[in-house]
Amino acid sequence: MIAExxxxxxxxxxxxxxxxxxxxxxxxxxxxxxxxxNEAIAAGVNDIGENKVQEFTEKYDAxxxxxRHFIGHLQTNKVKYLIGKTYLIHSLDxxxxxxxxxxxxxxxxxxxxxxxxxxxxSELSKSGFSVEExxxxxxxxxxxxxxxxxxxxxxxxISENCEYLRSLCLSVRKIYDKIREKDDLFEHLSMGMSQxxxxxxxxxxxxxxxxxxxxxxxxxxxxx
Length: 224
Ligand SMILES: *Cc1c(COP(=O)(O)O)cnc(C)c1O
Known about the structure:
single chain, alpha/beta, 8-stranded parallel beta sheet, 8 helices, binds pyridoxal-5'-phosphate
């Protein structure tokens, strides 16, 4: 079932986005077992993302052959566990996190590839820079020698209003293009989850993070 889902999505995105860019599929693997994740990798997934440091670490050795993304909120006291292990951190959402990443990465003589997280819907429950702050945040974050900025990441709010969601995506794409004009390293716009990825791709996303669509509904343990 997982393999079929992966193949279906890979074929659906194989033509790229309307901006002529290749789309990268990141499998969002929270709560999934290493066996499930390895099945997705065998079916063609090259990128996987965890959103908790503990899960990232626990599954690290049992999963084989994929780029390891970190896509969840990252507490500063847990940064140390990710140093040297991530392919891309999607959730660079505040300056204190950049300070800690810089300090740890420098000590390890490592450069961390990261996306600046944008709080697209200005939601109190989510972190990240506002669209208005994004350019200044980029300029400030660009000064950290051990952090290499590769693009932007965002999560849409829940809404039935497609026009509203579309306008949010397009405003993020606009700031992404503004930065990309001057910065060749900028290549990822990570927007889109199971609910909304088609709309995000239409509006210029080139990296989607899918969990449910690939693996089915999540069963959280009772303790959560
Ligand atoms: C879980 C998760 C996803 C995927 O969610 P689905 O709705 O299952 O596709 C994407 N991004 C982040 C940051 C997540 O935590």
